[in-house]
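User: Run a structure prediction on this.
Assistant: Running it now.
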Amino acid sequence: MKTIKDSVHDHITVDGVARDLLDTPAVQRLRRIKQLGTVSLVYPSANHTRFEHSLGVYHLACEALDQLGVSGDRAARVEAAALLHDVGHSPYSHNVEALLHRRTGKYHDDVHDLIAGGAVGEVLRDHDISPDAVADLVAGDGRFGQIVSGELDVDRMDYLVRDAHHTGVPYGTIDHERLIRELTFEGGELVLAEGNVQAAESLLVARALMNPTVYSHHVARISKSMLRRGTERLLDEAGYDATEVRRLDDPGLLSALRAEPETERVAERLCNRDLFKRALWVELEDVPEGVITADHDAIREFEHEIAAAADRDREDVILDVPARPEMTESSTRVVVSGEIRRLDQQSPLVEALRAAQRSQWRLGVYAPEGKTDRVGRAAVETLGLDIDGALVNERRSGWNTRLDEFAER
């Protein structure tokens, strides 16, 4: 048994298979991957890691299993999955995941190959646990996979509280102890027991507030876009293998970027926080559907057209088109008047929060300082944006103005 002092959950006791997994290279690698990627360029204290988060998820999974009356081998498999749920993350967490998925076909929760072999596989088999069964739980499969990856998973409960704690932003505060205490299975579904609609709503509200404040803050999006651009050049121009890059840690990827002439400039910019600036920041209704739904190749072609129209180098333009807003937590199941209902069928808050998400959505066009005006005007014409040719930097919403009170600009 090992007891670890945690900044969020106080003391975490690690025992059994989880204790033996703790010092495997795959788990220790998570010490070198920041939970929030480049967000520390906005909130300097956001340096917490996937390792701390994994310990927190393990701790909450143990509490959930106790609440649900699950023990023995079944509990051990879920505990192992909770601790291992992030071992598939690429460097800088989600920042380059989509890029690497296009080359490898794997997202971070596809860990079958990672935990079947090496020290992790040996530990699991020593405890008579099937690595494949654990990998399935990480992917959210089956009745108990919902605890690790689902609408009411302990992953979300930990990262909201942890991210709020380390950024100093209060919006991620949720009553995770009550959420866990009220978990129950109904017909194979993990649901919240009667009388907990407001507890479920708290997850929605916390996520809805953390997204623009932290996860999609404009500086975080700019730095993430620059990191993606550099990593793509590392693969396309410097000849790095995507599978190998996927298994690097944060310092390893940054070192690779600094070592190659094709990417050393972007690495220098990221290291010195010499970031691109916003040329445009455009609301959802002002963007043509063809731009919103454009795939990666189409976006790169748009970037080249904007650069040509602005008479700038193609590497001076980044077009950042986020996915349409979605709210997976709205499908959370709660028991109301003795029947299971989806939260979006029960709570009037859901539609209001969806409207807020749509109002917060922004397309971004970024360029080096001093080049934003020409790039912005070229992007308006190239993309057919409905903003009367005015640079959106001049139209910053009151919401984003308030955010800058919390974060370094």
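The radius of gyration is 22 Å.
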